[in-house]
Amino acid sequence: MPVVTVQGPPIKEVEVKRSFVKELTAAASRAYGLDEDSIIVLIKENPPENVGVGGRLILDKNREKK
User: Fold this and answer.
1) pTM for this structure?
2) N or C, where is the chain less crowded by C-beta within 10 Å?
3) Among 8, 11, 6, which Cα is nearest to 46's?
4) Domain limits of the chain?
């Protein structure tokens, strides 16, 4: 069973997540030649206060843009 893991910022709308998972599942199914029921998709959401880029929290970078 292939596992597709995506890490990124939170996706607020559940419908967007549903669509995202459906598209990732279809792509992995085609790539591996397996039935979609054997594909696992994990979405790991990381809020901006938990991610640093270039030595600074994304939270702080976003505040500076405003």
Assistant:
1) 0.83
2) C
3) 8
4) 3-65
